[in-house]
Amino acid sequence: MEHSPDPGGPTPVATAPRYRRPGRPTRLLNGVVHGLTRLGLSVAGSRVLEVTGRSSGLPRRTPVNVLHLDGVEHLVSPRGTTEWVRNVRAADGQLTLQLGRHRDRRVAVEVTGEQRVAVLRAYLARWSWEVGMFFDGVGPDSSDDELAAAADRHPVFRLQPVPADDT
Q1: Residue 100, SS3 per DSSP
Q2: Structure pTM?
Q3: 72: CATH
Q4: What values do phi and psi take at 25, rounded to 5?
Q5: Number of domains the chain contains
């Protein structure tokens, strides 16, 4: 029996999703931002993201930057496939954004393909001073191709209101 070669070439080796664990200074700063945001003081657009933990079932909270672009809210994970990203995926996008006592329920829908380029460009234009180090030299002035290449390492979500029948 003759064996024909695989027309698609060799099977790519699966790689673990990228995740850059925060160091102690970042954890301390995140704690300060988290505390201020919970008190109602937004730091450069910060909110506290609350999502159900995929293993524990308990609420998990982390500070995030909410990007407003063309009337739509977005979340970007500069550190890659973080715990909050994994929890949001496991919760079918169900999350809450908090600023002080104000809580907004949202559904996060993962953005794919070329749409991520514009979101990443706007996110980096706003927060590269804070998160640029996690983008390996890619910034708001990078080419579309460079941003597209970086997009696979930085999950992007579009936030939508919770449908009325889910309240």
Answers
A1: coil
A2: 0.78
A3: 2.30.110.10
A4: -60, -40
A5: 1
